[in-house]
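[retry 2/3] ESX-4 secretion system protein EccC4: previous attempt timed out, resubmitting with same input.
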Amino acid sequence: MDAVRTMLGCMTRRRGEQNGYTELLYDDKMGAMYSDHEPYAQHDAMTYSYQGGDCDHYDEKVEEIAQDVARLLWEAEWNDDALQSRISEAVGDQRWTRKMVEECLDNVIEYVERGRFEMGAAMCAALDKATDTADEEFAFPRRHPQSLDGFIAIVSVGVLAEMQGAWVLELLGFGEVQGKEELNGAGEIAMLTSDKIVFSPEPKPSSFAAWWSREYDAYIPHHSIYSYLINMDMVEVDV
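[retry 2/3] ESX-4 secretion system protein EccC4: success.
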């Protein structure tokens, strides 16, 4: 664990935009992810949101809501009903969509990269759980430092799901919320209150999960994504 945290604490990143999601390059200027010290003022965040097409008013609204939600997660001292109420107020009448969850993940990744300085206790706790679990299941940053961006991405997925609920994993392409089709129009409520998904061995096409699996396939042990989400207690298990 210390080896991973040391590596994660010795990097910063520049963006190199390609088609769709972005690929990152590294240098050795900054250590922030596990530092309580103030990070550099200038920071380029990862972006995992799809970059195609022009931004219309709806897209701008979704991005604004996602920023507000991620900031609430970052500031929170407790992951409780009060936090979820504030998130509901920030979302308002908008429906949770794949785009909104991906935008929210993008912002969570940025906060994780910036490190623990001024991070609330709730996100710190989620970060500890997700990092420790990811290190047990993947551990590829120790052998392949160039894949650290993928490690941070999957850790951030765990942070977001831990704080908002496993239903976000469906919109990220990792599986489905069970039973939502059976609620006669109330499926959205089922998703927003579900703490487990039915894992899909094949990620949803064109989703974040599909991108991540394809990008880091060479570093991912067989069944490790499933084990990661199982150990994060986010997957329905047959008994």
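[retry 2/3] ESX-4 secretion system protein EccC4: The CA atoms of residues 110 and 164 lie 17 Å apart.
[retry 2/3] clearing retry counter.
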